[in-house]
Design goal:
With 264 residues, the chain is an alpha+beta fold. Helix content is 55%, strand content 7%. The radius of gyration is 41 Å and the shape is rod-shaped.
């Protein structure tokens, strides 16, 4: 075996916590636990009494050894300890001031968080009540796609207005067309043979505004060619059976309906 691989650093076994692995054997600090004050104090680190004492003794010892005698032994010791003692007290005062500031910051943070949480709950409650009211109106309005479907209206409003969840592109359109299609297929006298016609009508109802805007046209109030419809001269109508658009030229015209190209 290569000599390098026989060196101590490559030996298998042993425990972490020494050498380059120093500190790896210590449990990870749980900053997520405890109060705001405790987490802030953990973040800045707890001072070590031994460290303060060690710094004091080191500074004091170096000063004492390098200081010429001044009026006797105790006088020399007192002079050597003066600056380290002042530094020790200064460090302790600074630490206490830091902890007071941390406590004040934590208290302010908790107060602000509590206030924001309370306001959020109030706003959420108010928004929920407004959504429920709007859903009831939608379910009671005949022209609404959610007529008679309070739960459907509520679910859509909650997803959109309360949680900010928007439907995927085309998802809302497909759902509404399907809903109108199912409603049309449930009409008396409608059979499976009428499925394609009902589907075309449902699609036009959803795309009506887009078609009018893109083609700069105006569809009739009832945009379909059906028996009993009251047609308006100059308006565009859709023949769902033939899947084409026509313009109504008026009752005095030689040609009542004339085909017209419409982009969809």
């Amino acid at each position: 075996m290569n000599r390098i691989l026989k060196r101590p650093m490559f030996r298998i076994g042993g425990s972490a916590g020494t050498g380059i692995t120093s500190g790896l054997n210590q449990p990870r600090a749980q900053y997520a636990n405890g109060s705001t004050k405790e987490r802030l104090l953990q973040a800045i680190g707890q001072p070590s009494n031994n460290r303060n004492l060690g710094q004091f003794l080191t500074t004091f010892g170096l000063d004492l050894l390098s200081r010429p005698p001044q009026g006797g032994f105790f006088s020399t010791v007192a002079q050597a300890a003066k600056a380290p003692t002042e530094q020790l007290f200064s460090d302790l005062d600074a630490r206490r001031n830091l902890e007071r500031q941390v406590a004040l910051t934590a208290e302010q943070s908790d107060i602000e968080f509590g206030r924001e949480k309370e306001l959020a709950e109030i706003n959420r409650k108010d928004k929920r009540e407004a959504i429920e009211k709007k859903a009831r109106v939608m379910s009671q309005t005949k022209t609404s796609p959610f007529f008679g479907d309070y739960e459907g209206a509520l679910n859509q409003l909650v997803d959109r207005d309360l949680y900010g969840v928007l439907p995927a592109p085309g998802e809302e359109r497909a759902k509404q067309i399907q809903k109108d299609y199912e409603f049309g297929m449930s009409e008396p006298g409608v059979t499976l043979d009428d499925s394609s016609v009902v589907r075309r009508k449902a699609t036009l109802l959803y795309d009506r505004n887009t078609i009018e805007k893109d083609n700069d046209i105006k569809l009739g109030v009832n945009p379909f060619i059906v028996s009993g419809n009251q047609y308006e001269a100059g308006k565009i109508y859709y023949n769902a059976e033939l899947d084409k658009f026509v313009i109504y030229n008026g009752p005095e015209a030689d040609v009542l309906f004339e085909d017209i190209e419409v982009k969809r």
